[in-house]
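Deviations from the work plan: none for this task. Representative record:
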Amino acid sequence: MTATRFSGQDGRRDHQAQKAPNAAAFHKLERSERTALSALAVPGLLLIGAIALAPIAWLFWLSFRDKSGFTLEHYERLLHPTYTLTLETTFQLSLLVTVICIGLGYPLAYLISQASSRLAAFLMLLVLFPVWTSLLVRCYAWLVLLQRRGVVNSWLQDMGLIETPLRLMHNFTGTTIGMVHIMLPFMVLPLYATMRSINRDYMRAAANLGASPVKAFWHVFVPLSLPGLFAGVIIVFVLCLGFYVTPALLGGGRVMMWSMQIERNVTYHSDWGAASALGVVLLAMTLAIIWGVGRIIGFDRITGSR
Amino acid sequence: MKAAIGKGSAISLPISIRNVTKTYGSFTALDDVSLEIASGEFITLLGPSGSGKTTLLMVLAGFIRPDSGEVGFGDRDVSLVPPHKRDVGMVFQNYALFPHMTVAGNVGYPLRLRGVAKAEISDRVQKVLELVQLGEHGTRNVDQLSGGQRQRVALARAIVFEPRILLMDEPLSALDKKLREQMQIEVRHLHHRLGMTTVYVTHDQREALTMSDRVAVIDRGRFRQIGKPRDVYERPESRFIAEFIGESHFLAVSVRGETAHYRDRPLQLAEPPRHPSGQQFLVVRPEKLRFVTDSEDGLNVFEGTAREIVYQGESTLLYVDLPDGAEIAIRQPATSLGQGLPAPGASVRLGLPAGDTMLVPGEAAP
């Protein structure tokens, strides 16, 4: 070895150092770079800790406290039918909204992904436009549209489809319509991103191998779009579980969601402990759902990293 | 369609391409292209990128609808037949293996679509996987395979349903050189064994010469020359062909009737010029030249100055400047017999045997 020529008659350590020149220095450099990179993340981590994790911890703590100290009273109260019924409504509504979002969002995302780039940009603008508008404004707009003498009812009457106005708001129907409208972009965006990344050659290959367009769609396109669908389902469902504004406005107090129980406990009863327990349960359910879906289909699919 | 082509055989079908034109706006991808491909033939569409070779393949597969023209497989006019009813095998450039299916799932997919019974599917899949030397890999996922293995799976999927026509779109371009050359031989053997009519697209002229029964050189949407590999290489019809296939240098010559003159000296030619007059070029390929001391009969001698030596491993190139500013090169194989090359600056005499002369017109023949 040429290295031995330099070390001459020196000891073994020197010999080894010569065989791998600069190894220690490179190792040190690597470590200091890693430390520097971690240090850069510290401000962000502190911020997240302060504004996200600390309140959750506080919430968690509160949910186990009353005036006398530790208690499970807040959680025991959740077994009361008022709350179990609310939980049922919340899940029903979230599931229904998610299913409708799939039904409307999948074809829409497919259309955008197959459209020419100019048309796709225009359609995407239409999808995103509502997101840029105030949530409250959109809910009040639905109130105007859906009320007894609103636009929708008068159209339906003018067309002779109905005799008497339908009850479209202050009930489950109205809440569903409003929430679907709010949630649809959250379904379309991940779906579209996934669909656009599906190479056209896959569909061509399927056709070449003998698959009719319909078969190619179900055998190849749909399976390849599933990661986007799962991402959309998770986002929409989880957002629905904790949704407050739209059910409160369009439900008119008749559709009781979990989030509204939290609000009632805080504003009417000033009961932070009970509200906190509700919050903890909601968080736990959300995490359980994400974990469950993740177990079934893999976490990398939910985060879209595959 | 009343085709003037041979009757279909059990394993292969002739292909007839007639007056196919395809334009994209003002760009003409295919300009009134016609080609008859014999049953069982291995033909290569060779051309630079953007020449229209892939477009033509896509027309055959049915993915691109031409503006006009006819495509026939055997006695069947498929011009208006959608891709999934054409029954041709195809290997895509990026393989297009379905990532959500296993190797066996991919290869079995065309059989599944044809309603073949499950037991028979697994039987045939196994057989074809063994044919491409992947018998053990049926249960693997596609992303666990190397590039060469994916290539074989794509090939297996394209031939498992025994199509009579196989289309291949630069299937080896993603492989490294050694693997590519190995796969060239394998694909060739497979073609010999299975015998389906094969249309192969490539921009690699060496690959085209190695693999094909016939080479169709395409440029700017038109065929420039169609012929056996040897003919295309040894008898290029235009300067474009001579430039695109093999290494060539060009010397401007003037043709007067039966003779051609380079710098007022008559050249000894293999055959009289095919085009009787005007500006033409003598094609000088490096491997056709040799060092000479005296002028002999049947030898065209060029005197010049050695300029640069380029070592290429199996051979060495010496670039020589001619007095009129033109450049030619001579290739010396790397054998111990070869004498040392002249140093740059030395004057050299190079001989081109009359039998190795080729004259081409200046512009590509229309």
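The first helix of chain A runs from residue 2 to 7.
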